[in-house]
Amino acid sequence: MNSIWKYCLITLLVCFAWEPNYAQPTHHLLLIKHLNGNFYIFTTYGNINGMPYPSNGMYAVTNEGVVLLDTPWDTTQLQPLLDSIQARHHQNVVLCIATHFHSDRTVGLPYYATKGIATYSSTATQNLCKEKNEGIAQYVFTKDTVFSVGNVQFQTFYPGEGHSSDNIVVWFPKDKILYGGCFIKSKETNDIGNLSDANVPAWRVAIQQTIQKFAQAAYVIPGHLDGYGVNNLAHTAKLVDDYLKKNQ
Questions:
Q1: pTM: predicted TM-score of the whole model, two decimal places
Q2: Is 90 annotated in the active site?
Q3: Of 70, 166, 224, 235, which one is the catalytic site residue?
């Protein structure tokens, strides 16, 4: 085999080695998208009525490690996410915060704790995780809390009941990024989503309070589907209002 063909074969092998997810079923896919600056959205999939459905988390790269918001829904992607972050940024994940108790946010908490990652949730989320047999964080915060990791500062905020009684959002003031988790719906859907643990009347008040408090947001990250614009806030309010009008 001459050197040119040998080079082409090696190139093809490297390409396949670095892009394994394209050959995987959708429900075992890990996608990572750059949002802005040192912020990235990761997406994995769970099953809804037998069909794969995307779930978003986010991570921020600091000069003292990576901060993870929520865990992959697909447990087969827990370690690949850590590996991808290490390969891309040469940093370890040092902190993970779950934004409510459902498994698409918490299923990976016990595994990440075994990797030396400090896992956090609110006290309300931890209590519900224990009650519902979901993944439990090592540490809790009892009220809205400011965290500083390296050069990145952020704060948790409890807006009130909505998608669940314990749902929180996370605000990065310097970069004007609001991570909404499942409290915020994507502009790409007209479905208010899973209401099994929701308080929709309270959600109406909570989303309006969130809109006012984070009026300066440049990005708003929903828990599911694409679209990271500020219009996700108003869209969530509309979905809540529409639901209440139809179910009065």
A1: 0.89
A2: no
A3: 224
